[in-house]
Amino acid sequence: MGLELYLDLLSQHCRAVYIFAKKNGIPFELRSVDLRKGQHLSDVFAQVNLQQKVPALKGRDFILTESMAILLYLAHKYRSLTVGTPRTTQACARVDEYLAWQHTTLQRNCLWVLWHKG
Ligand SMILES: N[C@@H](CCC(=O)N[C@@H](CS)C(=O)NCC(=O)O)C(=O)O
């Protein structure tokens, strides 16, 4: 079984993970969880994430939640696939810095845009 990403692309947290994986050519299977239909509250999804929130990542013997943790995991695990791969500790830290920044700025502001447009 390959990498599975449980996402609802309505969610900014999910879109960040989805775009990161797509842009970096990371192979994954999309498992859609429709928040509007309450699919995240199902018993089946609770087996993946007890907190019943998306995004979630499932590997062969590994489940990971929290968009930041997922982004960092993908960035580190698939480093060799990324364009402009950071080779030094400081360069890696620069990537982590950006990921931390976008979590509290870009994602939050995009959420506001969605709410006000919705
Ligand atoms: N801190 C979490 C937030 C996850 C989160 O709040 N996901 C929302 C969608 S954006 C969700 O699944 N909400 C369903 C609920 O709270 O019932 C992350 O960064 O992944």
Q: Could you explain the architecture of this structure?
A:
α1 (12-23) packs parallel to α3 and α4 packs parallel to α5 (106-117). The protein is 47% helix and 12% strand. The mean pLDDT is 87. β3 and β4 form a beta hairpin. It is globular. The protein is an alpha+beta fold and 118 residues long. The chain contains 5 helices and 4 strands. A 4-stranded mixed β-sheet has the order 2-1-3-4, with helices on one face. It starts with a strand and ends with a helix. It has helices spanning 12-23, 43-46, 67-77, 89-104, 106-117; strands at residues 4-7, 29-32, 56-58, 63-65. The protein has a single domain (4-117), classed as 3-Layer(aba) Sandwich (Glutaredoxin). The structure holds glutathione. Glutathione is lined by residues 11, 13, 35, 40, 52-55, 66-68. Glutathione binds next to α3.
List the helices and strands and how they pair.
Layout: E1 4-7, H1 12-23, E2 29-32, H2 43-46, E3 56-58, E4 63-65, H3 67-77, H4 89-104, H5 106-117
Parallel strand pairs: 1-2
Antiparallel strand pairs: 1-3, 3-4
The structure holds glutathione.
Glutathione binds at residues 11, 13, 35, 40, 52-55, 66-68.
Strand count: 4
Number of domains: 1
Which ligands appear in the coordinates?
glutathione
Mean pLDDT: 87
Shape: globular
CATH class: Alpha Beta
C-alpha Rg, in Å? Answer: 15 Å
Please count the helical segments. 5
Query: At the fourth CATH level, what is the homologous superfamily?
Result: Glutaredoxin
CATH fold descriptor: Glutaredoxin
In terms of DSSP E residues, the strand content is: 5-15%
Output the helix-strand order.
EHEHEEHHH
Q: Structural class from helices and strands?
A: alpha+beta
Strand arrangement, major sheet: 2-1-3-4
- Measured as a percent range, the helix fraction is 40-55%
Main sheet? 4 strands, mixed
Spatial separation of the terminal alpha carbons: 37 Å
